[in-house]
Amino acid sequence: QVQLVQSGAEVKKPGASVKVSCKASGYTFTSYGISWVRQAPGQGLEWMGWISAYNGNTNYAQKLQGRVTMTTDTSTSTAYMELRSLRSDDTAVYYCARILAGYSSGRFDPWGQGTLVTVSS
Amino acid sequence: DIQMTQSPSSLSASVGDRVTITCRASQSISSYLNWYQQKPGKAPKLLIYAASSLQSGVPSRFSGSGSGTDFTLTISSLQPEDFATYYCQQSYSVYTFGQGTKLEIK
To answer: Which of A15, A60, B14, B77 sits a CA distance of 20 to 30 A from A27?
Structure first.
């Protein structure tokens, strides 16, 4: 079955960077994009950006431009999201999701299980 | 950016009730509207896409309607497993989510 499995929880200090992985299985990785969404504690969902697993093209949310980088490793069917210059308000659960039917006009299914990133001094 | 506003923010209902959640876009998004269900501690799950198409495996008691700026998610007869938070998402201009509607047991 189609599955996305994310890396484990992280604790980082303000100013540090974090890199979260998302390993795909059960489908042809390069045929779809991967989107990243985060959810601060008790809050709603915030779209962060997407990456094409076919050619590496990216589209980032304006709010995160300059701090976020999304990459893929097609040899291992894994997507990565790196966030730099971490602040306390970056504390959140980070999700990856497969994009169906168009990178910027599609829908997300399935989702990874989520990775909690805690930013604290 | 396109803003998505859901109402109500929270809702109390009983098993067997018919429930409707509304989502309004700040500009026309045609039918580029998806609905997700999220249970505590779990990832969101796709329910409805393109405003009214039921995702495979989702029970038929869930339905979606609307186009342009106004959309609804309807649950025809609430089941115990439906108590969760629901989010709309526009996919007309990249992606934006609504703030969520928490559906609680009355």
So the answer is: A60
